[in-house]
Records
---
Amino acid sequence: MKKLVSASILSLAISVQMAVAQSNVKTGWTFGVLPSVAYDADLGFQYGALTNIYFYGDGSTYPEYLHSIYVEANRTTKKSGLFRLNLDSRSLLPGYRLSLDVSFMPDEMSDFAGFNGYQAVYNSTWHDDGASDYRSRAFYKYRRNLFRTAADIQGRITDRINWNAGLGVLSFDIDRVNLNKLNRGQSDDKKLPDIDCLYDKYQQWGLISDNENSGGLFPYIHAGATFDSRNQSAAPSSGIWADAFLTYTAAFGNKKEFNSLKLNANFRQYIALGTPSAVVAYRIGAQFTLAGSTPFYMLCYHNTLTLKRAAYESLGGSSSLRGVMRNRVISHGFALANIELRLRIVNFNVGNQHFYIATNPFVDAGMVLQPVSVDVQQVRLAAATTGDNADDYFNFSKSGVYRPHTSGGVGLKFAMNENFILSVDWATPFNSQDSGKKSNLYVKMGYLF
């Protein structure tokens, strides 16, 4: 059965200008609205909308806005979705940039392929219901609901160097896939079988402890510095963005073993090829665990100084390695790199609104730097007690752990007034171990970086 029947079959941009604009310089308020409709055999019919509202004041800072208010809500008939409110303001606190975010992300079918990238063997036919060795479409899934609140502030040190600080709370609710919910209304031949999924087997084999199989509440604080010489933030054609910061995540009660300290460093550069309409953009970054321990479901979380999008997965998926299955690489530390060529194809105006269409061929790569400890002998013995062959699930050679995961593809961008950018990216993994599909399609807002 096809897993994805249809995705993003409706995209409609509506713009309303609420103040007088002169030429292409925006003043006052503008906003865009995007409804979308999709259907997934496991998650059901998706319905929702998003809007991004911008305030440019007298236009003197354009294309940079003074306020951005982002609201998104979507829901599926199988009770998954996204509910998010984000405020990004350069003038609410004079002299500082303030970002506030409240998000709830229920996910009945979150991806889980095991630890340490290629050390975890990915058998795509096990969740392909047309294959002879099919097990379940939910075999590489578990339930992960995340509620997040965050407040971040930025202040100036010099014209190009800023200090950054923030705090927030991550609340995870973790469990095995709710088969009763997903099977509701399905015919008998389409129902998911009640078998042990990989998440269950990792618990049975001692790779996921009893203390991390149900989630928890994790307050965090972070602090660092950024260097920013970009000519604009939404789609820069020149300049550098670099940051380095520490994140301390706290845990209490029976979860106190999961206190941790992590280091992140990122570098981005934008190089115009003779014209701002042709730009090479690249990003390199890394996340390290310096101290403490982290539950497996938080190893999927990529720390960031400021929340620009809803989901920040570690390695794999739309926010890191496009084309690679979401959360394919779960480890204590990782590195990633993205490079793309951004080409503006056409610029045009409709009324007082400025639009452009662009494309961006790209290549993404990432790898494990700090693997999760896996006791080979213990896992072999534990797998045997459940009637499994460990070699069906693991590649125990070290070369499997540190081999890079790579993908590539091309994107199409539809932009209004420089900041409101609808992004459609098509990508494919270069190794079949990284996805059960030959290609993946992502529809989101803004450039990846």
Note: Residues 90-445 form a domain with the Porin fold (CATH 2.40.160).
---
Amino acid sequence: MFENLTGRLGRIFDRLKGRGVLSEDDVAEALREIRVALLEADVALPVVKEFVAGVRERAVGQEVLRSIKPGQMVVKIVHDRLVELLGGAGTGELELPASAPFVILMAGLQGSGKTTTAAKLARRFRLKAKKKVLLASLDVQRPAAQHQLEVLARQAEVASLPVVPGQGPLEIARRALDVARREGFDVLILDSAGRLSIDEALMDELAAVRDLVRPHEVLLVADALTGQDAVNTARIFNERVGITGIVLTRMDGDARGGAALSMRYVTGKPVRYVGTGEKLDALEPFHPERVASRILDMGDVVSLVEKAAETFDKEQAEKLAKKMAKGEFDLEDLKAQLVQLRKMGGMGGILAKLPGIQKVKKQLEQANVDDRMLVRQIAIIDSMTPAERRNPEIINGSRRRRIAKGSGTDVSEVNRLLKQHRQMRDLMRQMKRAGGLERLFGRLPSGLPPGLLPR
């Protein structure tokens, strides 16, 4: 997300921060480059004009130009303007009221990821807000659309409205609302039909459903990869139906990201969530401040910590902590850590949230630090016998060849993994002998989940 824009802005700001004194001409030149960078990132022209004008107004003042570190002041001004453009402080996360059912109508074009997003939201409300959720498909146009939502509902472990053949969208919506009220559901998510392009039939159907159920939220799901088309779609849907928020999908695959910067400006509606993958847990609330920091390569450590807390396995961590306290660490433990990394979004997901990552991106690519490496390492460990995982010392040459063949890797990769494990194990043993491990755990914040501190 925003990879190209981050790289361009990073080079511009590196030049500014490298100068002890800035003139108005220096700022003007940087703003011209920022303008080009934003346009190349698919940010809408009216948005670019207002953004650059706002930065210029604040950055050309004498207070900035004569400050001790004028380059850093300009970066801060750009960061603050980005936050304003993206929606200000806070988060787009929906706040669910106590009164029920809370009705959400999903809108968007066919292929934007609307149905999957509905299931992702349902799962999030069930796990995060402890809400009872009902999913209902109003899509009678696309073959098997209602069955698809049923399958996704089972995966998300929420209820779905039983399909009654022959019913139209309005009948389904009325029945879903009645079931939600009678059976005590906290949230009702209605997945409307989409089209390949905007047409009168689509808008009339959405407007009729909206008038019938009077939803609390009308969320537009848009594919970020479509760039300016997504912005135009948002504008038309807002004018014709009246949306209350936006969910951007495929943000993990969009190196430009301009749609996210433009849609709130064009519609005046907040970006609520972003989809960062195909899995049902790949949905994140949209935090303008954090996104602005990521665009400027300042990282997003807060989101990284939150993701770690979500995927944290207390029982497994307690077991590992006790073994670490004894200086023990076998290949089963290493595999558990690799699996944990994948749950947190893989190496790519973690590295994307670290500050300054763009500056070392080429080195990481050359070192093949990616999610495929994690998958291959897990496959190598899975190809070992239980005895080999517990005691890697018995893995001789013939065993290494067998493990490589079974995991579809090379012997050199098996050797690398074994060396990596050996280094981690030796480090823990050294810390154990020095008493450093206990001191390390003792300095950890008291707010950590109980059971992590070794006894």
Note: The chain is about 55% helix and 10% strand.
---
Amino acid sequence: MTATKPDPSSWERLQIDEPIVRDVMAIERTIMANERTFLSFWRTALTMFIAGLTFVQFFAGTIFQVIGYVFIPTGIIVFICGCRLRRRMNRVIQQAEAAVEAEAHRAAAAEAHGGGR
């Protein structure tokens, strides 16, 4: 069995510059990965916080109380770290989007002037 290759003229028919599409799709994947990572931080922080409250409220042993009082602030710290990471990655993503947009405008201007690449 042979794999069928896409028609090489499909990009020309759509008048889409392949590297720009590739870059845009990479940015979209990065945005989704950033959201998944943030949700993982959120889920972990919430689990630790609730586990800490559970240990403090429902267990009488000293060790359980200590574990509970360690889990509560740790959950808060994990949430803050997740927020900071998300904000930092959003800045990087915005810079990448701006670079891709600038490249698209440059390519469009070059095409309009008849120079191509």
Note: The first helix runs from residue 10 to 14.
